[in-house]
Design a protein that fits this description.
The protein has 48 helices and six strands. It is mostly helical. Among the domains are: 100 residues, Serine Threonine Protein Phosphatase 5, Tetratricopeptide repeat (Alpha Horseshoe), CATH 1.25.40; 126 residues, no CATH class. GO terms for molecular function: RNA binding; zinc ion binding. InterPro entries: DYW_dom (IPR032867), E2_motif (IPR046849), E_motif (IPR046848), PPR_At4g14850-like_plant (IPR046960), PPR_rpt (IPR002885), TPR-like_helical_dom_sf (IPR011990). Belongs to the PPR family. PCMP-H subfamily. This is DYW domain-containing protein.
Length: 876
């Protein structure tokens, strides 16, 4: 290697040349042609410029190329561009292909001006005749456009290069561009097209493909490409082995990654780092920690990347003391100036709840903070619940000239603030990220939380490359909105596009089947699909099945899934307790709770909410109170509004209205609308006019247009014979233009939903339905049934009241079910309002005379009628 010339000597040599030749004459080429490059090597840009200014026009272009290359090699992008512009301006546009190729590569290093400069250089290439005539220039143009995320423009340049001229570098630049744009399917298609055109891939091509396989989880394709890399003799290098390890680790095949690692004759520090990161990704933190300990004795010098990974390990384990130890090691080894290490430390402190320490590290970082460090800080704020601070950092980041990337936007969208998604969405469109799979999927999740299916669908259709996560997010959006048909259609289209569902996709589809209008049979079909795809034992799937079956009235199926679960998370336990409570099997709910206590399962507020609800539905006042006190005292769980509402339900159902008011008055925060609605419903049952009036006034202060409040208060006055007060309430409804919500019931027969309202005669089989009702009523009266007309809150004759009761919507739905199904078929009816006491009695009697099991879901719970008995024990 040629020894580098000392800077003082170069300056002296330059000065001597000027003395000998005098400044009025051009410098001799022999004396000066080597100066600019040497001076640039030592980063003395002003000296290089001064020497170059004196070079003769004849030799300037040749000398400038060398200076340009040296600027580029030293990473001085802006100086290289400035130098190129000056040379081009002085020497009349004589630019060689090598210089154009070099400067095109350099311009992508100036992110704020890359595309504009690149387009100008493209114009210069065309002017000089180098755009497609030289493969190096064409390749550099492809690379420039791809790095600027202008995939379409880069592809056009690529297609303009003659097929015979495209080399492996050209193809690899194109593949890398599609990979960075998230167009993973296109990368694979281009790879196979490249092979079809007879171009042999090199190790960098294979590395790009392995990276795509890793991001897609397409392990079968990865194995095929792995075999091709062996065929082309590219698999023996450390670089490719590292890429393969990364691929297998990210595809979840960590054992194959470990086997590759063990089979490597030569390993570099990157090999250790990749396997450590892979173990971390696959939740094998202890193995990763052991690997780190082994690496310290096997590697001469650990890198900042090693410490970055091990600090992430501490973050995942939430081991604050271990993170602090490695922080000390980082300071000792001088790695505290590396952005990836500082970002990992910020993440570790944030995950350990030490946001102040994370902010301190962020503040101590160099002024030129990059997009990764800003994104990590924003994520830390969101993790610790400080959304305003996250938003402030997001604004400051842009003010400091750092452009958010797709991960920044997706991170901001994880904040659960209703006003954020539209704001972020607008910026996503402005910065041209709307077609990004990562950002698009994050937007889908955000609009899903808002149940904005139309917005979500428009975003979904704009995403170029839809992977399984994207499809699952769209399906989840429909599921959260209760649109089972929409979710099912998405699942069908996903299968038609050849995208294989995973456990999260199937669990979302099962959640959609829990909507009130969906039939349990559709849920059973998705249960079968989960078995077909061998993911029925995944916790998210089995938990979704328990919840779906419980909410669709099939508590036996929910119990069967629960008993077969190999692993149970807290959601499974809570879903089972809540299911039993809603179905009136309070004792079974309490048995599950006791089983949790015996097995030492950690409980949360949702667990106690379900238990107290079970006690409320069974009238177990003392036991419910004990669980509420235990939650606060023994489990140190702070009661929420939902817990207090459930306690109000517990007391008021049992008629203990004085205790209810004492509880409300002792709450640490003002009572909410749901609590007052619960109390108002109890006042109707127990005919407490004064307390009902108070509850209604409080409720109307929150929701002045809620029709149910007016109706409940009106019914309380009617039951007490206060007709004048009832008329006042009705007139108030008319004044405020509040419409009473119609009561209706529906039943699903052969995948078709049949809806009914009271006295409904619109059904095609209306005559048969009323004939069946008449026959049932006659038989019921023979069995001793006496209609309870107190549930008809109108002044009219008893015969009229009986006729109204006989035509309640739930009875019409039941009559239709009896004539539309074979004898003995279980029937399930859903009603949007609370079932009245008289209909409840009728259902019990019909279960005997028709020998049917009837499941009825009203607005508050399930009723299982069988052999004249209801699961609620007539307490609802």
């Amino acid at each position: 290697m040629k020894p580098r010339t000392p800077l003082p000597f170069l300056r002296g040599k330059n000065a001597a040349t000027f003395t000998r030749k005098q400044s009025t004459k051009p410098l001799a080429t022999s004396a000066c042609s080597g100066l600019p490059g040497d001076i640039v090597n030592l980063r003395d840009a002003p000296g290089a410029r001064k020497a170059f200014d004196e070079i003769s026009s004849r030799d300037a272009v040749a000398g400038s190329d060398r200076a340009l290359f040296d600027y580029a090699r030293r990473g001085l992008a802006r100086q290289a561009l400035g130098h190129f512009v000056d040379v081009h301006r002085r020497h009349g546009g004589r630019v060689g292909a090598a210089a154009l190729s070099c400067v095109l590569k350099v311009c992508s290093s100036v992110p704020d001006r890359a595309l504009g400069l690149g387009e100008q250089l493209h114009g210069l290439c065309v002017k000089c005749g180098h755009d497609l005539g030289d493969v190096s220039v064409g390749t550099s143009l492809v690379d420039m456009y791809m790095k600027c995320r202008c995939v379409e423009d880069g592809s056009k340049v690529f297609e303009g290069i003659p097929e015979s001229e495209r080399n492996v570098v050209t193809w690899t630049s194109l593949l890398n561009g599609y990979m960075q744009a998230g167009a993973h399917l296109d990368v694979m298609a281009l790879f196979f097209r490249m092979r079809a055109e007879g171009v042999w891939p090199n190790q960098f091509t294979f590395a790009s493909v392995f990276s795509v396989v890793a991001s897609q989880g397409a392990v079968d394709i990865g194995r095929c490409v792995h075999a091709q890399s062996i065929k082309f003799g590219c698999c023996s290098t450390v670089f490719i082995c590292n890429s393969l390890m990364n691929m297998y680790a990210k595809c979840g095949l960590i054992e194959q990654a470990k086997a590759l690692f063990c089979g490597m004759e030569i390993r570099d520090v990157v090999s250790w780092n990749i396997l450590m990161a892979g173990l971390l990704l696959n939740k094998r933190e202890l193995e990763a920690l052991q690997l780190f300990l082994d690496s310290r004795s096997s590697i001469a010098k650990l890198t900042h990347a090693t410490y970055s990974t091990v600090i992430k390990l501490c973050a995942n384990l939430k081991q604050l003391s271990l993170a602090q130890q490695h922080h000390s090691s980082v300071l000792k080894r001088g790695f505290h100036s590396y952005g990836n290490v500082l970002t990992a430390l910020m993440d570790a402190y944030s995950k350990c709840g030490e946001l102040d320490n994370a902010l301190s590290i962020f503040s101590s970082m160099p002024e030129s903070k990059n997009v990764v460090s800003w994104t990590a800080m924003i994520y830390g704020c969101i993790q610790n619940g400080d959304i305003p601070l996250a938003a402030a950092h997001f604004s400051r980041m842009r003010e400091d000239g750092v452009a958010p990337n797709e991960f920044t936007y997706s991170t901001m969208l994880t904040a659960s603030v209703a006003s954020l998604p539209p704001q972020i969405h607008a910026q996503v469109i402005k910065t041209n990220y709307q077609s990004s799979t990562t950002v698009g999927t994050a937007l889908l999740h955000s609009y899903s939380k808002l149940c904005s299916t139309e917005e979500a669908l428009s975003i979904f259709e704009m995403i170029d490359q839809k992977d399984v996560v994207t499809w699952s997010a769209m399906l989840t959006c429909y599921a959260r909105a209760g649109d089972c048909d929409g979710a099912t259609n998405v699942f069908i289209k996903m299968s038609m596009h050849g995208v294989k569902p995973n456990e999260f996709t199937i669990s979302s589809a099962i959640d959609a089947c829990a909507s009130p209008t969906a039939g349990v049979d559709l849920g059973r079909q998705f249960h079968a699909i989960s078995i077909k795809h061998r993911c029925q034992d995944a916790i998210c799937v089995s938990s979704a099945l328990i919840s779906m079956y419980a909410r669709k009235g099939s508590i036996e199926s929910a119990q069967s899934v629960f008993e077969r679960q190999r692993d149970r998370d807290l959601v499974s336990w809570n879903s089972m307790i809540s299911g039993y409570a809603h179905h009136g099997y309070s004792q079974k709910a309490l048995d599950i709770f006791r089983q949790m206590e015996v097995e030492g399962i950690e409980m949360d507020g949702v667990t106690f909410l379900a238990v107290i609800m079970g006690c409320a539905h069974a009238g177990l006042i003392e036991e419910g109170r004990q669980h509420f006190d235990s939650m606060i005292r023994d489990y140190e769980i702070t009661p929420t509004m939902d817990h207090y509402t459930c306690m109000v339900d517990l007391y008021s159902r049992a008629g203990k209205l004085d205790e209810t008011m004492n509880l409300i008055e002792g709450m640490p925060f003002p009572a909410g609308p749901m609590l007052w609605r619960t109390l108002l419903s109890a006042c109707r049952v127990h005919k407490n006019v004064e307390l009902g009036k108070l509850a209604a006034e409080k409720l109307l202060s929150f929701e002045p247009l809620d029709s149910a409040t007016y109706v409940l208060l009106s019914n309380i006055y009617s039951a007490a014979g206060k007709w004048k007060e009832k008329d006042v309430v009705r007139k108030l409804m008319d004044t405020r233009k509040v419409k009473k919500e119609a009561g209706f019931s529906w039943i699903q027969i052969k995948n078709k939903v049949h809806s009914f309202i009271a006295s409904d005669k619109s059904h095609p089989l209306s005559e048969q339905i009323y004939a069946k009702l008449k026959a049932i009523t006659a038989r019921l009266k023979k069995e001793g049934y006496c209609p309870d007309t107190s549930f008809v809150l109108h002044e009219m004759a008893e015969e009229q009241k009986e006729a109204i009761l006989a035509m309640h919507s739930e009875r019409l739905a039941l009559a239709f079910g009896l004539i539309a199904t074979p004898p003995g078929t279980p029937l399930q009816i859903v009603k949007n309002l609370r079932v009245c006491g008289d209909c409840h009695t009728v259902m019990k009697m019909i279960s005997i005379i028709e020998d049917r099991k009837i499941v009825m879901r009203d607005c508050s719970r399930f009723h299982h009628f069988s052999s004249g008995i209801c699961s609620c024990g007539d307490f609802w």
